[in-house]
C-alpha cells in the first residue's frame, strides 16, 4: 500500500468538498474492493475519504411503492432486513449470497454499485428492478448508470447516496459462482415490474446487460419453460480459464430458468 | 509391544495438546518473531518467464528513505548454488543435468517470480517502495512454458548446455521381459493422461529471519521449514559455507507445509547472508501472491501407459512413459519424486509381474516442481486406478472383480514387486470389503435411480491404493541417488522428578506430534501426557534430525524414541536393581514401574530418576548419573499403508457441476496411536485429493505467465465442496519397526483422486465417456454432456 491521507467527514457536503478539492482522492465505504487493490499497489489515491461516518448514507426504508437503501447499507444488513425481505425477497437473498460472512459485514451496496464489477451481484438486481441511483447531485436510471466493465455514469467526485428500488410484482435471482473467486460466473435477475418484465444478466459479459429476448418471452408467459429454449449469443461474452464464452452463454439460459422458478 | 494403555497411551483419542495455542491465536510462527534491530527484506521478482537481464540500476533504490542495502546476483555470484538433494542417473548411467540455481538471478531470469534483487530497509513498506525504484532492463526471450514447448524443435533453452531441456531420461524395469508380456497378451488397454499441476497453499506463507552475532560469529535462521537440520546442512554447507557449529536453524510453529516447506529456498540464504553483511537481523515474509510464484509446485506429469491382460483379466504387464515437469530449477527433492517415489509404486496392490517405466524430466520456464502431499504416489495411484477402471470397462469385467483377481494375496507377504520395493504387510481384500460395506456399494443403483428422478447424474468409484512411506533406509536411498541419510533421531530426557522431555528430529506443522509422541512416552513410561513435553524444530536443542515428510515422523521418528526409551528402561533397571538390592535380570518394567519379579517390591520411574540425578545411593562405579538417552533409528524398509477409498458424486447436467456426496476411506496405516488424529489426517488429505480431482489447476499461458496466480483464480476446496468423510482403519502391522506403524499423513491425498474421477466417469457412463482429465470442472463436464447430447437425441 502506498501512503495516503485519511479523512472521515460526517456529512455528504463535507465529503463532496474533500473530493472536489483533490482529484486524486477516493471515497471508501466497506473497503472490500478498494483495500485489496491498494494492498496490491494497483491504486494510488492521494487521500481516502471514509464515508462510514456519514449518517445520511445509512438506512433501509420503505417509501410508498419504493424501497430506498442507503449507500452504506452492508450486504448483511440488506440480507437480514425485514423491510427488504417483505418487499423484495429476491434482493435479500441476493445480498445473503455475496462473498462470505466477513465480506458481507463490511461491503456496502453503494460500494458495489459504484464499482460495477461485471461479476458482482447487485448490478443485476439494480438493472432488472429498474432502480434509480440517487447521488449527491442527481437521479440516474439504472439503464443509464451501468456503462460496462467497472464504468458507471458517476462523475469523478460524485457520491452514490442511495438506491431506490420500485417494488416488483415478482423477482428472482440465480447464479453460478466462479468456483475459485465465488464471484458470479453467470447470473440472471428476473423481475416482473410496473414497467414490464426485465431480465438482467451479470457475470457472463464485460458488464451487466439486459436480455431482450428473454424479457419478451417472459412477458408473454412467465414460466421457466418460456426462457428454456432461448439461447444467449456467446459473442462478446467473457472467456477465461474458468469457462468459455459458450459455456457462459449456456449458463445464462440455465440461470434465467432457475431465476424464474425462484421468483415463482 | 507393551501393554496397551486404555487411557492416554497407544490407541487413545487424546485431545491435541498443541491446539490450545493454535486455536487461540497464540502460536509462535516465524512472522510472529521479531529480533532486536530487525530490518526487512523485499525481493524484487521477475515479471517475465524467460529473459536476459541486460542491466540493473539500483542507485535510485539505494538512495530511498530507510534503505540499508540493495543486492543483486552480482553480489552473490561467488556463493554456492541452491543445492539439489537427489541425483538421478540417465538410462546410459550418466548423471542428470544439474544447472546452477543462484540465490539471485545471474544475468537471466527463468520463471515468473525468479528472484532478481533484494532490498533491505528499516520497514517492509520502505523496502517495497525502493524495489519499485530498481530499474531492470530485460530482453524478453521466448518461453518454454510447457513440457511440450520445451521439447519442440528449436525450443527456448531454459539452461545453457542442457540439451533439449532434458534434466534426465531414466527408466526402471526389464524392457525385454515387459515386451514379451505384451506380445503374449490377450488384451492391451492404453490410456494417456495429465496429472494436473498444483499449488500447495499452506495457510502460513513462507517467512525467514536471518541473524548474525559478530561477537561469536554465530548465525541463526528462523524459517518456515519442515526440517531445520536439513536446511542447516544444505544452506550451511552448500550455499553459504557456514559450519554447523556456527549456524542454528529454528523452525518454530509452522502453519502447514504439505511438502512445500521441505526445500531449501533462496530466501533463507538471502536473509542469512544479508544479516551477516549488515550486522542486523533481516526478516522476509512472503505475500500470498509471492507464494504462488515462489513456493515449489506439485505434480505436473504427462503420461502414456498400457496394461497387458490375459483372457481372464489377470494383469500381465504394465508399461508407462511419463514426462515430469521440473520447472526452471531443481528443487531439493524434485528429481526423486517422479522416479523413486513414483515408478516404484506402479505395482500398486496388484501382482503385475512385469513393469517397465521410462521417465523424462523436463526443464520449463515455470516455478520449480517438487514433492506435494503424496509426492509421486498420488501420480502412480491415479494412473493405475484409472487404468484398472478402464480395463474393467473394456474387458467387461466388473471393476471390483478385476481388482480382486489381481490383488496380492495375504499369504504372499513379504511381496517383492518388479519395481524394487518389497511390501511387508497388507490385507487389500479386507480394506476393500470394509469400504464396500461402509459405502453401501451394493445399494448404489437405488441411489442412482433416485438421483435421476431429481435430474442428477450419480456415479460411484473406488480406488484400492497402496503407498510407500516412512522414508527411508539410508543405504537404499543412498544407492538410488539420495545425498543424505533418512534416519531419525530421538532423545528421551527423564527429569529428576519424573517428567519427560522428548527431543525429536521430526517436525510438526499441523500433524499433532506433540500429542502423538507424548502418547508413545505415556504408554511406555507410564507418565501422563501432560508430563511429556515434545521439543522439535531447533537445531540448538535437538541433536540431529531429517524432518517431516513422506509420512515418516512416527514410523521413523517414533521408532527412534522407542529405541531411546529402551535405553532408559535398561539403565533404569540397573538403578532399580541397586536400590532394591536385587539382580538386574530380576527387574521387570511395566509402564513406569520397576519391580523385582515375583515380589511386591517396586520403584517408580520418578524414584529411579531422582536417584539418577541425586546419586547418593547409586552404583556410581558402573553407571553414570542422569537419565537421558538418544537413539538414531534407520528404518529397514519403507512402510506400506494401503486401503480403499470410495467416492460418490452427483453431477448437475445443466451446469456440469460435480458434488462429492459421499466419501468413504478405509485405510491400513498400521498401528494407530491416536485415532482422532489419524481421522483428521485422512480427512485433510481427502480434502486435498478432492481439490486435485475437481477444483485445483495451476495454469500458465504460452508466454509463461501464471494465470492461476491468486486464490481468485486457483480454486482451493471449501467446506461446501466436501462431504462428511467417513474414515475407518483396518490394521495390519508393519513388520519391521518397533511400533508396527505405517503412516497416515498422505494416504488421503493418494487414494482419493482416482476414486473421485472413477465416480465422475461412472456418472457419465451413459454418455459413452472413457476418461476425463483432472480437474473435472463444470465447463469440462458440461462440454462432454453438451457434445454427447445431440448424438444421444439422435439415437
Ligand atoms: C473475498 C471477497 C469476495 C467477494 N465476493 C463478492 C461476490 O460474490 N459478489 C459481489 O457482488 N461482490 C463480492 N465482493 C465485493 C464486495 O461485495 C464489495 O463489498 C463491493 O464490491 C464493494 O463495496 P465496498 O463497500 O466494500 O466498497 P469499497 O471497496 O469501499 O469501494 C469500492 C469502489 O467504490 C467506490 N465507492 C465506494 N462507496 C462509494 C459511494 N458511496 N459513492 C461513490 N463511490 C463509492 C470506491 O471509491 C471504490 O472505487 C467480494 C469481495 C471480497 C473481498
From TrEMBL, chain A:
InterPro entries: CO_DH_flav_C, CO_DH_flav_C_dom_sf, Diverse_Substr_Oxidored, FAD-bd_PCMH, FAD-bd_PCMH-like_sf, FAD-bd_PCMH_sub1, FAD-bd_PCMH_sub2, Mopterin_DH_FAD-bd. It holds the Pfam family FAD_binding_5. Residues 1-170 form the FAD-binding PCMH-type domain. It comes from the Bacteria. The keyword Nucleus does not apply. Keywords: FAD, Flavoprotein, Oxidoreductase. SMART domains: CO_deh_flav_C (SM01092). This is Xanthine dehydrogenase family protein subunit M.
From TrEMBL, chain B:
Residues 24-142 form the Aldehyde oxidase/xanthine dehydrogenase a/b hammerhead domain. Keywords: Molybdenum, Oxidoreductase. SMART domains: Ald_Xan_dh_C. Pfam families: Ald_Xan_dh_C (PF01315), MoCoBD_1 (PF02738), MoCoBD_2 (PF20256). Gene3D superfamilies: Aldehyde oxidase/xanthine dehydrogenase, a/b hammerhead (3.90.1170.50), Aldehyde oxidase/xanthine dehydrogenase, molybdopterin binding domain (3.30.365.10). It comes from the Bacteria. Transmembrane segments: none annotated. This is Xanthine dehydrogenase family protein molybdopterin-binding subunit. The lineage of its organism: Bacteria, Pseudomonadati, Pseudomonadota, Alphaproteobacteria, Acetobacterales.
Amino acid at each position: 500500500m502506498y501512503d495516503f491521507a485519511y479523512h472521515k467527514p460526517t456529512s455528504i457536503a463535507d465529503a463532496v468538498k474533500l473530493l472536489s478539492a483533490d482529484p486524486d482522492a477516493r471515497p471508501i465505504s466497506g473497503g472490500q474492493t478498494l483495500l485489496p487493490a491498494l494492498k496490491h499497489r494497483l491504486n494510488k489515491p492521494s487521500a481516502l475519504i471514509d464515508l462510514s461516518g456519514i449518517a445520511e448514507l445509512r438506512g433501509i426504508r420503505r417509501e410508498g411503492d419504493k424501497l430506498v437503501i442507503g449507500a452504506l447499507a452492508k450486504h448483511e444488513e440488506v440480507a437480514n432486513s425485514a423491510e427488504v425481505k417483505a418487499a423484495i425477497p429476491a434482493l435479500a437473498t441476493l445480498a445473503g449470497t455475496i462473498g462470505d460472512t466477513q465480506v458481507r459485514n463490511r461491503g456496502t451496496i453503494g460500494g458495489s454499485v459504484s464499482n460495477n464489477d461485471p461479476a458482482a451481484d447487485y448490478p443485476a438486481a439494480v438493472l432488472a428492478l429498474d432502480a434509480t441511483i440517487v447521488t449527491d447531485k442527481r437521479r440516474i436510471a439504472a439503464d443509464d448508470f451501468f456503462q460496462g466493465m467497472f464504468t458507471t455514469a458517476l462523475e469523478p467526485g460524485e457520491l452514490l447516496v442511495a438506491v431506490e428500488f420500485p417494488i416488483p410484482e415478482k423477482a428472482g435471482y440465480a447464479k453460478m459462482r466462479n468456483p475459485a473467486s465465488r464471484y458470479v460466473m453467470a447470473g440472471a435477475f428476473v423481475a416482473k415490474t410496473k414497467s414490464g418484465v426485465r431480465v438482467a444478466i451479470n457475470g457472463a459479459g464485460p458488464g451487466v446487460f439486459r436480455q431482450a429476448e428473454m424479457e419478451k418471452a417472459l412477458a408473454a408467459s412467465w414460466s421457466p419453460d418460456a426462457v428454456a429454449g432461448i439461447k444467449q449469443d456467446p459473442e462478446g461474452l467473457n472467456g477465461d480459464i474458468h469457462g468459455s464464452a459458450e459455456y457462459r452463454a449456456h449458463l445464462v439460459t440455465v440461470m434465467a430458468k432457475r431465476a424464474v422458478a425462484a421468483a415463482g | 509391544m507393551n501393554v496397551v494403555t486404555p487411557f492416554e497411551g497407544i490407541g487413545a483419542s487424546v485431545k491435541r495438546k498443541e491446539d490450545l495455542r493454535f486455536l487461540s491465536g497464540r502460536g509462535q510462527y516465524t512472522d510472529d518473531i521479531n529480533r532486536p534491530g530487525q530490518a526487512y527484506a523485499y525481493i524484487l521478482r521477475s515479471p517475465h518467464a524467460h529473459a536476459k537481464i541486460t542491466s540493473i540500476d539500483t542507485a535510485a533504490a539505494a538512495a530511498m528513505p530507510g534503505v540499508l542495502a540493495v543486492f543483486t546476483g552480482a553480489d552473490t555470484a561467488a556463493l554456492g548454488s541452491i543445492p539439489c538433494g537427489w541425483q538421478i542417473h540417465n538410462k546410459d548411467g550418466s548423471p542428470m543435468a544439474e544447472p546452477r540455481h543462484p540465490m539471485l538471478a545471474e544475468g537471466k531470469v527463468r520463471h515468473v517470480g525468479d528472484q532478481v534483487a533484494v532490498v533491505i530497509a528499516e520497514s517492509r513498506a520502505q523496502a517495497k517502495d525502493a524495489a519499485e525504484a530498481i530499474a531492470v532492463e530485460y530482453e524478453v526471450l521466448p518461453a518454454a512454458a510447457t513440457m511440450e514447448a520445451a521439447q519442440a524443435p528449436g525450443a527456448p533453452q531454459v539452461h545453457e548446455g542442457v540439451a533439449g531441456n532434458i534434466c534426465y531420461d531414466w527408466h526402471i524395469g526389464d524392457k525385454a521381459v515387459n515386451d514379451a508380456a505384451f506380445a503374449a497378451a490377450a488384451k492391451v488397454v492404453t490410456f494417456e493422461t495429465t496429472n494436473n499441476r498444483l499449488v500447495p497453499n499452506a495457510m502460513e506463507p513462507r517467512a525467514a529471519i536471518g541473524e548474525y552475532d559478530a561477537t561469536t560469529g554465530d548465525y541463526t535462521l528462523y524459517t518456515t521449514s519442515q526440517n531445520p537440520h536439513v536446511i542447516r546442512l544444505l544452506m550451511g554447507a552448500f550455499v553459504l559455507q557456514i559450519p554447523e557449529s556456527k549456524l542454528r536453524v529454528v523452525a518454530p510453529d509452522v502453519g502447514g507445509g504439505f511438502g512445500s516447506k521441505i526445500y531449501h529456498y533462496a530466501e533463507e540464504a538471502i536473509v542469512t547472508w544479508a544479516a551477516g553483511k549488515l550486522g542486523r537481523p533481516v526478516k522476509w515474509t512472503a505475500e500470498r501472491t509471492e507464494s504462488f510464484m515462489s513456493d515449489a509446485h506439485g505434480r505436473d506429469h504427462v503420461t502414456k501407459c498400457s496394461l497387458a491382460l490375459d483372457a481372464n483379466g489377470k494383469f500381465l504387464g504394465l508399461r508407462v512413459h511419463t514426462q515430469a515437469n521440473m520447472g526452471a530449477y531443481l528443487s531439493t527433492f524434485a528429481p526423486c519424486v517422479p522416479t523413486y517415489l513414483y515408478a516404484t509404486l506402479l505395482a500398486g496392490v496388484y501382482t503385475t509381474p512385469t513393469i517397465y517405466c521410462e521417465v523424462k524430466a523436463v526443464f520449463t520456464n515455470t516455478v520449480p516442481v517438487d514433492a506435494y502431499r503424496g509426492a509421486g504416489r498420488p501420480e502412480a495411484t491415479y494412473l493405475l486406478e484409472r487404468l484398472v477402471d478402464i480395463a474393467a470397462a473394456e474387458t467387461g469385467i466388473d471393476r471390483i472383480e478385476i481388482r480382486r483377481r489381481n490383488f496380492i494375496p495375504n499369504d504372499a507377504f513379504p511381496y517383492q514387486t518388479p519395481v524394487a520395493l518389497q511390501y511387508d504387510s497388507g490385507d487389500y481384500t479386507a480394506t476393500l470389503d470394509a469400504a464396500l460395506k461402509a459405502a453401501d456399494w451394493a445399494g448404489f443403483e437405488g441411489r442412482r435411480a433416485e438421483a435421476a428422478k431429481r435430474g442428477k447424474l450419480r456415479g460411484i468409484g473406488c480406488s484400492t491404493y497402496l503407498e510407500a512411506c516412512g522414508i527411508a533406509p539410508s543405504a537404499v536411498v543412498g544407492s538410488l541417488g539420495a545425498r543424505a541419510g533418512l534416519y531419525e533421531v530421538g532423545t528421551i530426557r527423564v527429569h529428576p522428578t519424573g517428567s519427560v522431555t522428548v527431543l525429536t528430529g521430526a517436525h510438526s506443522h499441523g500433524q499433532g506430534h506433540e500429542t502423538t509422541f507424548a502418547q508413545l512416552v505415556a504408554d511406555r513410561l507410564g507418565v501422563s501426557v501432560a508430563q511429556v513435553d515434545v521439543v522439535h524444530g531447533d537445531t540448538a536443542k535437538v541433536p540431529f534430525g531429517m524432518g517431516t515428510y513422506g509420512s515418516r515422523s512416527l514410523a521413523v521418528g517414533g521408532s527412534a524414541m522407542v529405541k531411546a526409551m529402551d535405553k532408559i528402561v535398561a539403565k533404569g533397571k540397573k538403578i532399580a536393581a541397586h536400590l532394591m538390592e536385587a539382580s538386574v535380570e530380576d527387574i521387570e518394567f511395566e509402564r513406569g514401574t520397576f519391580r523385582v519379579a515375583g515380589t511386591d517390591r517396586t520403584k517408580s520411574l520418578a524414584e529411579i530418576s531422582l536417584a539418577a540425578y541425586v546419586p547418593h545411593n547409586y552404583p556410581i562405579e558402573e553407571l553414570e548419573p542422569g537419565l537421558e538417552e538418544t537413539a538414531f533409528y534407520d528404518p529397514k524398509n519403507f512402510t506400506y499403508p494401503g486401503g480403499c477409498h470410495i467416492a460418490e458424486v452427483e453431477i448437475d447436467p445443466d451446469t456440469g457441476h460435480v458434488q462429492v456426496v459421499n466419501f468413504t476411506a478405509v485405510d491400513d496405516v498400521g498401528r494407530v496411536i491416536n485415532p482422532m488424529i489419524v481421522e483428521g489426517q485422512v480427512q485433510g488429505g481427502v480434502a486435498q485429493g478432492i481439490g486435485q480431482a475437481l477444483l485445483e489447476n495451476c495454469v500458465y499461458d504460452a508466454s509463461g505467465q501464471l494465470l492461476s496466480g491468486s486464490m481468485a483464480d486457483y480454486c482451493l476446496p471449501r467446506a461446501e465442496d466436501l462431504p462428511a468423510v467417513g474414515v475407518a482403519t483396518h490394521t495390519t502391522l508393519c513388520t519391521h519397526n518397533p511400533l508396527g506403524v505405517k503412516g497416515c499423513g498422505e494416504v488421503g491425498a493418494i487414494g482419493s483422486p482416482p476414486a473421485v474421477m472413477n465416480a465422475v466417469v461412472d456418472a457419465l457412463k451413459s454418455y459413452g465417456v472413457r476418461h476425463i482429465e483432472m480437474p473435472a470442472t463444470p465447463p469440462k463436464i458440461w462440454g462432454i454432456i453438451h457434445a454427447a447430447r445431440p448424438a444421444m437425441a439422435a439415437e
